[in-house]
């Protein structure tokens, strides 16, 4: 799945280098770097000459420590020199030893030294147990063979298989579709970079396959993620290998996703527009017919790239997310949705169109526009159709009770303005609210908030006498 395709030479020509996060270095081949150092692993041992110098210095230090102590500073001993031996008699300076406080027997009194490193009741200076022991060849436990042989440590990195990659990447991508945090995905995959070295192309194939099964906003997130992973986790060759695998699997993908050819063509064109793969990748497949579905996907990507201002338009190939669209555009789409529903009365199609807008926080606008449309139409048939639609959306938990309450309250606030154009607005609203209350998605509390305009009382109907007294 993640291996290079031998039949397509363009994959071998793509760059396979990654930029390290440290500072612009390129991670091309870890084995080459290990061969340059002459080792395998992370530990670089010393040469034989350096080890010999260290052992000689340690032996000399140990030898000097075993020398007998001089009885006093007044004792002068001339040891064997370079030009022969000349032992001079010991010259004891009684005058100097007379005023000396240390013991004349050559042994101390058991007092601690000036640095607190010895003496009676002490074990040595603080931290002396942390010092490395000197290497002494005269030590009975001394072993010379391990020191003379260079040490090599082999770094064993467990490599993940295809099933392990599927278990690692799939939950990570699904979580990314929910929180849109690309940094977390990059950080997790970079930690496993050594383990997935030979299966990095599976990241591309798994991401695109999951995006095919989701909506357009998730496909946009997948395209952004592939662009962010480029040169950090995956290379040009990995992206090309992943798309090559998907082109060969299109006959199977079409069974679950009928629009898989168009979706894959959009992904390939978007990757070329994002400079993740070069345009020559697409040209190499024009003469190579893998299968009929792959030809359609290649033609789709080529048409998108060759259209006027194609690279600029590919930035919105998946459309604009609901939270980014302007309010006027959303209101216009909702009004068109309601008008089409009233003419066709297809609840399933209206529900699908509402979900495609991806604005659950703006569903109160649907309730508001639907209620205003009922009042302005003054038609019983429209009332019944809108009531069925709102009831279906409420029972399927697409429109919440809070959105319904907010939509009706907005209508209640503008009723004086609506009544100017529609004199019977209050009567129609009362009849529609009563129908919705019986349907079960309008509460009694909300129904009591419904405004009602009382009929004007004329002078002839009462209080006429008091009114005339002032004249």
UniProtKB/TrEMBL annotation:
<dbReference type="Pfam" id="PF02847">
    <property type="entry name" value="MA3"/>
</dbReference>
<feature type="compositionally biased region" description="Gly residues">
    <location>
        <begin position="105"/>
        <end position="122"/>
    </location>
</feature>
<dbReference type="InterPro" id="IPR016024">
    <property type="entry name" value="ARM-type_fold"/>
</dbReference>
<dbReference type="GO" id="GO:0005634">
    <property type="term" value="C:nucleus"/>
</dbReference>
<dbReference type="GO" id="GO:0045892">
    <property type="term" value="P:negative regulation of DNA-templated transcription"/>
</dbReference>
<dbReference type="InterPro" id="IPR003891">
    <property type="entry name" value="Initiation_fac_eIF4g_MI"/>
</dbReference>
<keyword id="KW-0539">Nucleus</keyword>
<feature type="domain" description="MI">
    <location>
        <begin position="329"/>
        <end position="452"/>
    </location>
</feature>
<dbReference type="InterPro" id="IPR039778">
    <property type="entry name" value="PDCD4"/>
</dbReference>
<comment type="similarity">
    <text>Belongs to the PDCD4 family.</text>
</comment>
<dbReference type="GO" id="GO:0005829">
    <property type="term" value="C:cytosol"/>
</dbReference>
<keyword id="KW-0677">Repeat</keyword>
<keyword id="KW-0963">Cytoplasm</keyword>
<feature type="region of interest" description="Disordered">
    <location>
        <begin position="99"/>
        <end position="122"/>
    </location>
</feature>
<protein>
    <recommendedName>
        <fullName>Programmed cell death protein 4</fullName>
    </recommendedName>
</protein>
<feature type="domain" description="MI">
    <location>
        <begin position="164"/>
        <end position="287"/>
    </location>
</feature>
């Amino acid at each position: 799945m993640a291996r290079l395709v031998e039949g397509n030479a363009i994959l071998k020509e793509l760059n396979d280098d990654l930029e390290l996060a440290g500072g612009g270095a390129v991670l091309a081949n870890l084995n080459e770097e290990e061969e340059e150092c002459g080792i395998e692993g992370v530990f670089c041992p010393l040469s034989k000459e350096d080890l010999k110098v260290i052992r000689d210095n340690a032996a000399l230090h140990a030898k000097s420590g075993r020398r007998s102590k001089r009885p006093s500073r007044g004792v002068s001993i001339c040891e064997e020199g370079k030009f022969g031996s000349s032992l001079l008699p010991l010259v004891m300076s009684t005058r100097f030893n007379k005023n000396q406080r240390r013991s004349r027997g050559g042994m101390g009194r058991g007092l601690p030294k000036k640095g607190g490193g010895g003496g009676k009741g002490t074990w040595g200076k603080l931290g002396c147990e942390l010092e490395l022991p000197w290497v002494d060849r005269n030590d009975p436990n001394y072993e010379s063979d391990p020191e003379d042989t260079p040490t090599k440590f082999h770094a064993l990195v467990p490599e993940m298989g295809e099933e392990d990659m599927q278990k690692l990447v799939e939950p990570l991508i699904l979580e990314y579709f929910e929180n849109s945090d690309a940094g977390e995905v990059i950080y997790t995959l970079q930690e496993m970079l050594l383990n997935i070295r030979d299966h990095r192309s599976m990241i591309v194939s798994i991401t695109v396959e999951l995006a095919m099964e989701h909506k357009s906003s998730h496909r946009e997130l997948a395209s952004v993620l592939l662009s962010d992973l480029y040169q950090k986790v995956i290379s040009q060759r990995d992206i090309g290998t992943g798309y090559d695998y998907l082109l060969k699997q299109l006959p199977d993908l079409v069974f679950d996703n009928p629009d898989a050819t168009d979706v894959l063509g959009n992904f390939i064109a978007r990757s070329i527009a994002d400079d993740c793969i070069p345009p020559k990748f697409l040209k190499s497949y024009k003469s190579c017919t893998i299968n009929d579905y792959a030809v359609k996907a290649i033609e789709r990507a080529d048409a998108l790239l060759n259209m006027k201002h194609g690279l600029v338009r590919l930035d919105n190939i998946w459309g604009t997310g609901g939270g980014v669209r302007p309010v006027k555009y959303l209101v216009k789409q909702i009004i068109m949705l309601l008008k089409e529903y009233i003419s066709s009365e297809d609840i399933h199609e209206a529900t699908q169109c509402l979900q495609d807008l991806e604005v659950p926080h703006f569903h109160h606008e649907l309730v508001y526009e639907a209620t205003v449309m009922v009042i302005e139409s003054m038609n019983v048939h429209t009332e019944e159709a809108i009531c069925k639609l709102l009831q279906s959306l409420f029972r399927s938990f697409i429109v919440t009770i809070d959105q319904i309450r907010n939509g009706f309250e907005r209508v209640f606030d503008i009723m004086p303005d609506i009544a100017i154009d529609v004199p019977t607005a209050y009567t129609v609203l009362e009849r529609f609210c009563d129908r919705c209350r019986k349907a079960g998605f309008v509460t009694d509390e909300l129904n009591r908030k419904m405004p009602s305009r009382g009929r004007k009382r004329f002078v002839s109907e009462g209080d006429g006498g008091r009114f005339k007294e002032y004249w």
